[in-house]
């Protein structure tokens, strides 16, 4: 009974009852018995939708009640806002909630007064690197989706960050929440924690496989579920669920497939909608179109008007929220999603269909099966407690043999054990530098001792591998000037400290510094010798195509051809940051290679550093992908409209935002690095950064910086003759109003932000002779 919880604030039982929670679910009760409200460490490995959030809340609220401060680590930014909304419920009892995701180089001082902070593991890592003083005040840390330590890319950050937090404060309560995994006890050993390992679910889940005209369920029974003429299996299941007044969540393996499936399934849903539902859906479709003016937005709105939707990481946040809300309100009857959604956004549904159980995997060079853990997480979204009698999760088989295969592989299978991915060079490059720079280790031995606290160390008896990688990484960091090693002592250089605080991969920093130096020395002139990419007949060059150090020195010595850093083009800088490992580059599609080879031929002069020889397949390909990414950024910064960009590069609006934000961050870092190594390129870099931030050409940089203006309005104002912030401040209000197409509220807001004496638009009429229309 929620009245009998030890250690929690006195208001909590009533609050829970108001939320319809009278009794704890069994795994929650086990967690309380294991001391989660009394400061004890805990690993909870329980199925999706079985109430992990409440376990986290019990831990955090009781810790705060004892005068402490709690941190909740989320794996994805998209989940941060959802958790924030959950925890803000507690503000009515005087608690302060803070969320921190972006902006890596700050120490987040304002978070010092918060009782509960929500952040991604990358953000927490960066706060530690920047010595956020309040980190030491933490008394409780909760990690959501801790099984993601298994993720090669992001897992190591989580592992190292937890080790640091626990080292800074040995009494820190650590609570780790996980989907059901094969080796939960390994996580508990690593974290010195009690363990709740349970299969309990609040609502029954039936797993099954659909083939032909039947749904084969795991209890051995079969349901007739027939496929009508020309109908696909998924459509048949969606229709069958609709006839029972239920909704379906369909998981597919790519964004494109999600969009295509939603478009098709809209036809299945449409006949089942009532007039009232159609009306409300039409309103939501309008809101979706208002979020952005792109093809994705249009397609989504069209599908939603018919009660179907797609959901993937290419959507902007506004789109995602509208879709999730409409699905929860049971207006949208089917959502076709990529697996990102399964990771935690709380959108249960009567049935779940896992349509694709393979997806493209670059490292496997083709289609690879999803893990059992992922498929079980998707399946776990089936069944809404209190609304559905039970949930059903269905895999789709295309042959009789596949029915058996899918039962073996997923329905009856246990999830894989989670294994640390720390002992890999890219991960350790970053984390070793940061560990030394923030003083967690001062010698090679100290470093190895620190790494003993990771999951990796607890999972391996063979120390050799880790030591070998550590030594390789130390050599790399020393050679590139990030670390000094003297008589076994490790010390970060000033550059090393900067790189750690900027949250850069050291390899990105090296790429940026080298590129800027090359430019200064005019060294890229020497590249034409390495084989023009437009000439496929050329013989492979004798050397590797790299400019050697002595060539650089020679160039620098006879340096009449030193180039002015102010002449670095924005494209050159976008390319420089796009080729670092911190930027996800756009893929080259078929046909792209030729296009970007031409582009390279035309614009090679602008790029910083030598073009790799085309005979170095991997590096040359990366160089071209970086060019494609850089062209997208350049298009954005020359006011090409969003719809054109999404079409030209085959991306969604959310991807443009993502690339722009990363470029902004990396260019900001490049500015700091340039001044750190005395390169005088700050002006060019900062201009390129501001242009990409606002998505405008040079002449609009000042105007677009006024809050509420943005790229389109800046252009309209400019066309009306208002060319900078100062002119806006003293502008004729009638002209401003006309330029902003008669929108009074907007005009007042913009004038106020520009510092206009009297921004009121009362009685002002748009100047008739101003006509600007960019559309
Ligand atoms: P997950 O384990 O996936 O994080 P959640 O914590 O989001 O699952 O819980 C799923 C749903 O169950 C939420 O809507 C939550 O309010 C509800 N819930 C959690 N605990 C209880 C309980 N003890 N009694 C009733 N409902 C509960």
Largest beta sheet: strand ordering: 10-9-8-17-14-11-13-12
The bound ligands are:
adenosine-5'-diphosphate
Helix/strand class:
alpha/beta
Kindly, what is the distance between the CA atoms of the first and last residues, rounded to a whole number of angstroms? 61 Å
Global Rg: 28 Å
The count of DSSP E runs of length 2 or more, i.e. the number of strands, is: 19
* Tally of alpha and pi helices: 32
Bin the strand percentage: 5-15%
> Looking at the structure, what is the overall shape?
globular
Overall pLDDT confidence: 88
Largest sheet: 8 strands, mixed
**Low-pLDDT sequence parts:** 523-560
The share of residues in helices is 40-55%
Write the layout of secondary structure elements.
Elements: H1 12-18, H2 26-33, E1 42-45, H3 52-65, E2 70-74, H4 77-88, E3 97-100, E4 116-120, H5 121-129, E5 140-143, H6 155-168, E6 173-178, H7 184-190, E7 194-197, E8 205-211, E9 214-217, E10 222-224, H8 233-243, E11 248-251, H9 255-269, H10 275-291, H11 295-305, E12 308-311, H12 317-328, E13 334-337, E14 351-354, E15 358-361, E16 366-369, H13 372-379, E17 391-396, H14 400-411, H15 425-437, H16 444-451, H17 455-459, H18 464-479, E18 483-486, E19 489-492, H19 494-502, H20 506-520, H21 549-557, H22 570-578, H23 592-603, H24 617-636, H25 642-649, H26 653-676, H27 682-694, H28 701-704, H29 710-719, H30 725-729, H31 733-739, H32 744-754
Parallel strand pairs: 1-6, 1-7, 2-4, 2-5, 3-4, 5-6, 8-17, 11-13, 11-14, 12-13, 14-17
Antiparallel strand pairs: 8-9, 9-10, 15-16, 18-19
Helix pairs in contact: 5-6, 6-15, 8-9, 9-11, 10-11, 10-12, 15-18, 15-19, 19-26, 20-26, 22-24, 22-26, 22-27, 23-24, 24-26, 26-27
Adenosine-5'-diphosphate binds at residues 21, 24-25, 28, 48-54, 346, 385.
């Amino acid at each position: 009974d929620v009245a009998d919880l030890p250690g929690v604030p006195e208001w909590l039982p009533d609050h829970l009852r108001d939320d319809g929670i009278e009794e704890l679910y069994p795994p929650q009760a086990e967690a309380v018995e294991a001391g989660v409200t009394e400061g004890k460490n805990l690993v909870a490995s329980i199925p999706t939708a079985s109430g992990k959030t409440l376990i986290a809340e019990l831990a955090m609220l009781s810790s705060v009640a004892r005068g402490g401060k709690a941190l909740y680590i989320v794996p994805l930014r998209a989940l941060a806002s959802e958790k924030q909304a959950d925890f803000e419920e507690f503000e009515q009892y005087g608690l302060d909630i803070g969320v921190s995701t972006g902006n890596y180089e700050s120490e987040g001082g304002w978070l010092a007064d918060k009782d509960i902070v929500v952040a991604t593991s990358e953000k927490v890592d960066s706060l530690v690197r920047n010595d956020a003083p309040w980190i030491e005040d933490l008394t409780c840390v909760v990690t959501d989706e801790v099984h993601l330590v298994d993720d090669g890319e992001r897992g190591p950050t989580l592992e190292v960050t937890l080790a640091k937090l626990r080292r800074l404060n040995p009494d820190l309560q650590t609570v780790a929440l996980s989907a059901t995994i094969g080796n939960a006890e390994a996580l508990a050993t690593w974290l010195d924690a009690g363990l709740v390992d349970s299969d309990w679910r609040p609502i029954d889940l039936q797993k099954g496989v659909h083939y032909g005209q039947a749904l084969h369920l795991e209890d051995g029974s079969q349901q007739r579920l027939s496929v009508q003429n020309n109908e696909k299996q998924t459509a048949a299941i969606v229709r069958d669920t609709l006839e029972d007044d239920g909704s379906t969540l369909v998981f597919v393996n790519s964004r494109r497939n999600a969009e295509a499936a939603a478009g098709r399934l809209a036809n299945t849903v449409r006949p089942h909608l009532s007039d009232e539902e159609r009306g409300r859906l039409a309103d939501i479709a309008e809101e979706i179109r208002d979020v952005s003016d792109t093809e994705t937005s249009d397609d989504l709105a069209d599908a939603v008007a018919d009660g179907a939707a797609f959901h993937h990481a290419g959507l902007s946040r506004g789109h995602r929220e509208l879709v999730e809300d409409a699905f929860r309100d049971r207006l949208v009857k089917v959502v076709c999603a990529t697996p990102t959604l399964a990771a935690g956004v709380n959108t249960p549904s009567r049935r779940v269909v896992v349509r694709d159980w393979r997806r493209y995997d670059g490292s496997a060079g083709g289609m690879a099966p999803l893990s059992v853990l992922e498929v079980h997480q998707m399946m776990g979204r089936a069944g809404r407690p209190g609304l559905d009698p039970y949930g059903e999760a269905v895999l789709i088989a295309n042959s009789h043999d596949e029915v058996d295969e899918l039962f073996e592989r997923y329905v009856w299978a246990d999830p894989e054990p989670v294994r640390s991915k720390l002992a890999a060079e890219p991960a350790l490059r970053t984390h070793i530098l940061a560990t030394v720079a923030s003083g967690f280790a001062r010698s090679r031995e100290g470093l190895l001792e620190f790494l003993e606290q990771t999951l990796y160390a607890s999972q391996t008896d063979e120390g050799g591998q880790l030591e070998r990688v550590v030594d390789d990484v130390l050599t790399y960091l020393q050679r590139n000037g990030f670390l000094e090693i003297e008589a076994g002592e490790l010390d970060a250089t000033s550059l090393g400290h900067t790189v750690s605080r900027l949250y850069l991969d050291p390899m990105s920093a090296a790429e940026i510094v080298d590129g800027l130096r090359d430019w200064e020395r005019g060294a890229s002139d020497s590249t034409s010798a390495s084989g023009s990419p437009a000439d496929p007949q050329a013989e492979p060059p004798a050397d590797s195509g790299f400019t050697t150090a002595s060539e650089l020195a020679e160039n620098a010595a006879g340096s009449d051809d030193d180039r002015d850093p102010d002449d670095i083009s924005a494209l050159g800088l976008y390319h420089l940051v796009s080729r670092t490992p911190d930027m996800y580059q756009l893929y080259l599609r078929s046909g792209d290679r030729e296009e970007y080879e031409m582009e390279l031929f035309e614009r090679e002069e602008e790029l910083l550093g030598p073009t790799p020889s085309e005979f170095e397949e991997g590096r040359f390909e990366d160089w071209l992908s970086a060019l494609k990414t850089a062209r997208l950024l350049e298009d954005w910064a020359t006011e090409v409209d969003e719809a054109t960009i999404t079409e030209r590069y085959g991306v969604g609006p959310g991807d443009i935002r993502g690339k722009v934000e990363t470029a902004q961050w990396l260019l900001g870092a490049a500015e700091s690095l340039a001044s750190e190594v005395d390169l005088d390129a700050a002006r060019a870099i900062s201009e390129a950064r501001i242009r990409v931030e606002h998505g405008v050409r040079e002449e609009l940089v000042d105007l677009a910086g006024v809050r509420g203006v943005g790229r389109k309005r800046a252009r309209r104002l400019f066309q009306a003759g208002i060319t900078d912030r100062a002119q806006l401040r003293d502008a004729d209000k009638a002209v401003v109003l006309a330029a902003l197409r008669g929108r009074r509220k907007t005009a007042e807001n913009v004038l106020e932000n520009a510092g206009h004496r009297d921004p009121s638009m009362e009685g002002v009429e748009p100047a008739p002779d101003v006509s600007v229309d960019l559309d």
